[in-house]
Structures are given as C-alpha cells and as structure tokens.
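hey
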C-alpha cells in the first residue's frame, strides 16, 4: 500500500451522513483520510475527478492507493483502513454478504434525499430539490 492519504467525500448537510462520518473521524486509522464536505461552496467535484451529480448521489472515497471507490466499495475502503472495522471489510469479501450490502445501499440511495437536512438552504446539494417539492 502506498503511503498516501485517501479522501472521504461526504454530504455535510445530511444529518445521518455527517453523524456516520464524525464517528469514523474519531477512530484509529482515520488519519489516513482527509474528510471533504461536498456541500462546501469551495468544493469543486471536477478537480477531484468526480462527477458533481454522482458525488451527491452515492458515497465516494479515494482509497489510500489513490483509487476512487463508490457505494459499498467506498465504505469497504474506509473499513479496510480503520482497525475497528476491518472485520466488516473481511466479512464483505463474502459474496452473500456483499450482495446484502449492495441491496441495502441501493435502498439507502433511494431514501437519502428524504432524510433530514441540517439547514433549509442547501442549494449545493441536488437532493434539496426533492424535499422542497
């Protein structure tokens, strides 16, 4: 493994997302990642090699090898580096477990736009439009 820092891209306006990311920040091994709020006005997805709409739709992580991971693979990249969660990484190597994780994540992606937001003005996230309809 290269001695580089990965990046966790997260929706800082999503209450559930922020809670989970704050949990990861406190764990041993989290120093291997920088934490980047995709709703910060200074965030430019293209400069990170990320599609701006997709960044708001699914989780993205640049792993410590420099590879961009999305969805369940993004979480696996985090779990691989955080000792407390390496058991989840190892468990997710099993096809049956991986299938369940993929199904669960697909369901989460569909409901995430309806989850509580930290503030009403969240124009940086395309998911705000869903809640305002």
């Amino acid at each position: 493994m290269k001695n580089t820092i990965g990046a966790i891209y997260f929706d800082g306006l999503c209450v559930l997302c922020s809670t989970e990311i704050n949990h990861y920040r406190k764990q041993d091994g989290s120093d291997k990642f920088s934490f980047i709020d995709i709703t910060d006005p200074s965030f430019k997805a293209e400069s990170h090699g990320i599609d701006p709409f997709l960044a708001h739709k699914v989780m993205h992580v640049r792993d410590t090898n420099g590879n961009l991971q999305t969805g369940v693979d993004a979480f696996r990249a985090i779990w691989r580096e955080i000792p407390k969660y390496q058991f989840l990484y190892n468990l997710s190597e099993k096809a049956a477990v991986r299938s369940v994780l993929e199904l669960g994540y697909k369901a989460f992606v569909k409901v995430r736009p309806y989850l509580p937001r930290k503030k009403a003005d969240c124009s940086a996230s395309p998911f705000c439009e869903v809640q305002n309809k």
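The longest helix spans residues 95-111. The mean pLDDT is 88.
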